Amino acid sequence: MPVEPHYGHLLIIEDDKGRREFVLDRSMYTIGRDPQCDVRLISQFVSRRHATIVQLPNETGNCYYRIIDGNLKGKPSANGILVNGDKTQAHNLRNEDEIVFGPRVRAIYYCLQRDAIATIPPDEFDITLISPNMVDESSPQ
């Protein structure tokens, strides 16, 4: 019986603080330099509420993420966002997309596919016995 693959979503941020990883698993994230943002960017060149990432369902029952410039009320950031070198208001994120928020402030998005493996609990009576003939007594331990 085939099992649908599962996806993990990862955002790697590089800014004045260094490199940090964020596992995306919630329905929404705010991104910016405001301390209240879910993903805080450490740079004077980004807006307080620079972007928003929202989770959306796809036709296979999994989800994908869309990045939107500014907040969900329609207020854009001061400098906008670049995705893969193109200025955009919104973009459905794909594996290895590069998002630039400002000078020396960027993120890489990863969509990691993991094959789901149907597992069963171990059989408590499944015991492997070692025959005494299988042990080589002449080898040093």
- Give helix and strand order, one letter per element, not per position: EEEEEEEEEEE
Overall average residue pLDDT: 86
The main β sheet shows up as:
6 strands, antiparallel
Rg result: 23 Å
User: How many helix segments?
Assistant: 0
Query: Unreliable stretches, pLDDT < 50, 5 or more residues?
Result: none
**Strand order in the largest sheet:** 2-1-11-10-7-8
Helix/strand-derived category reads: mainly beta
* Approximate helicity band: under 10%
Can you describe what's shown?
The radius of gyration is 23 Å and the shape is elongated. The two termini are 46 Å apart. A hairpin with a 2-residue loop joins strand 10 (97-102) and strand 11. The mean pLDDT is 86. It contains no helices and eleven strands. 22% of the residues are buried. 0% of the residues lie in helices and 45% in strands. It has strands spanning 6-15, 18-24, 28-32, 39-40, 51-57, 63-69, 81-83, 86-88, 90-92, 97-102, 105-114. It has a six-stranded antiparallel beta sheet, with no helix packed on it. Strands 4-3-5-6-9 form a five-stranded mixed beta sheet, with no helix packed on it. The chain has one domain (6-114): Sandwich (Tumour Suppressor Smad4), CATH 2.60.200. The protein is mostly beta strands.
